[in-house]
Design a protein that fits this description.
The complex is a heterodimer of chains A (305) and B (281). Chain A is mainly alpha-helical and 305 residues long. Chain A has 2 domains: 48 residues, no CATH class; 228 residues, MetI-like (MetI-like fold), CATH 1.10.3720. Chain A is built from 13 helices and 2 strands, in the order αββαααααααααααα. Chain A has a two-stranded antiparallel sheet with strand order 1-2. Chain A is flat, with a radius of gyration of 25 Å. With 281 residues, chain B is mainly alpha-helical. Chain B has a single domain, classed as MetI-like fold (Orthogonal Bundle). In chain B, helix 3 packs across helix 6. The longest helix of chain B is centred in the first third of the chain and has 47 residues. Chain B is globular, with a radius of gyration of 24 Å. The chains are: A mainly alpha (305), B mainly alpha (281). Chains A and B meet through helix 1, helix 3, helix 4, helix 5 and helix 6 of A and helix 1, helix 3, helix 4, helix 5 and helix 9 of B.
Amino acid sequence: MRRPTRTEARNARAAAGFLLPFLALFLLCFIAPIVYAIWQSLHKTERTGPLGLGGAEREVFAGLANYAQALADDRFLSGFGRVLLFGAVQIPLMIILATVLALLLESASARWVTFFRSAFFLPYGVPGVIASILWGFLYVPGISPLVKMAQEVGWDVDFLSRGTVLWSIANIVTWQFTGYNMLVLISQLKAVPQELYEAARIDGANARQVALHIKIPLIRPALVLTCVFSIIGTLQLFAEPMVLRPLASSIDSGYTPNLHAYSEAFVGNNQHLAAAEAVLLALVACVLSFGFLRLVGQRGKEDGR
Amino acid sequence: MTPVRLRYRIITCTLLTVAAVYFLVPVYWLVVSATKSSGDLFGSFGFWFANPRPIEYLGDVLTYDNGIYVRWFANSLLYAGIGALAATLLSAAAGYALAKFPFPGREGIFNVILAGVLIPGTALALPLYFLFSGFGMSNTYWSVLIPSVVSPFGVYLCRIYAAAAVPDSLLEAARIDGAGEWRIFSGLGLRLMIPALVTVFLFQFVHIWNNYFLPLVMLSDSDLYPIQLGLTSWTGYADRQPELYQYTVGGAFLSVLPLMILMTVLQRYWRTGLTEGSVKA
């Protein structure tokens, strides 16, 4: 092996001084919990007394028993199914809406652009819990002006029934994050050289053709980025169902995987099972986001990019 | 103007207006409702005012239960303000080191940090709670603050920005003048990285302010709650104490004000920071 030169050694020393504070905390708050969760998920608590009752508690190796238990739990699995369905519908809708709004705001025919952009972005400043409380009031009959107005025109709407509540939650998430995603797309649009648009115009392309064939392909990296973050966010769905739970009887403690893990840890008092569920959640998030990146990466190559 | 262009303009403006109504109506409802009593909240039409007495009702929110709301607000400011500031400085130092000092293993470390961006925060929060409660550190200010100061995304942004905005020649010149590495970083590097630092600060501030799961699992003492945890505890009791509906609405209104002002005023910085990575990558 080559001995490091003096500059390299000096560089490494200086870099270590700047990096260590962050790395130490990264180790404590990212690496350690992951390692600890994996360790916990592979163990279980056993009582030393006869028949597994009484006596002192001790941790024994459990192999994959906690994972088997989590994966055999219908409610945990149906929670996963629910967030996957949610993501399959809500993410495309939100990204399409964000793309349309970004293209409209960046088109030559838009007016009051600053006002509209701020208005669309505003909900991002409303935390998920507050947004859920807010929309909760707009969903509950008796207090909601929306329900009242619907009833006056003879539409008996129930935002919180078993069939609708998932989509009422989807509405809250869409309301909150569309503007943020739109802003990401707009900044990518602004990075595209203007000459490209002008050239297309001169070649006779109309506004729609420019949008479809030039702008959308060019903002592809930003679209991929917003999709990946939306996938990760969707899997973590928690605050919205948690807040709406007292209002909608169909939201149970296993409505989303995260809600299930939380109840397992704090209501069921089973940390080991909760740890296994947290690991599974992180794994699914990784598989889905990397899978998505692979998928769009390959498509990109086929397009000759 | 040609008729075609006029038609485009009308369609565009109509669509944008419809969208604006969708995004603003809940906020409008919140503003209107914050001026109502509990009775009017249920008894009057939600989209219009009824006996508005905002000062009195918002005063009630602030003084209820010995001013616990003010305490929650201060807690939120503490978590988000100090957390974001510390996160920005840590990210700046780490990003600067990764951008400006070639050393063996640099890309490896950067990739591990980058993978941290893709790990769902809530999947970390539960194990983090188990870990912290093992040290007896759960249910303290630290249990929320410490995890909040680690921002892998901030490091990523700072590295990319520092690589582009801090010229090597300037650092060499400072070194020849005999300045130490720490002085170069604090005097020169940080100043050149300011636009990125503002973006990281904003991101982390909003991230911590909006975070619900971490304080929910970590904290059991309501004196340590941030606003959102406090407000959800109010909605939990509202069945028995109907005036808590009014306080929840008022409290929600007061809590979204600072962030909305912050976001509107500093919108410029959101734009510059967000795609820094994707444009250059």
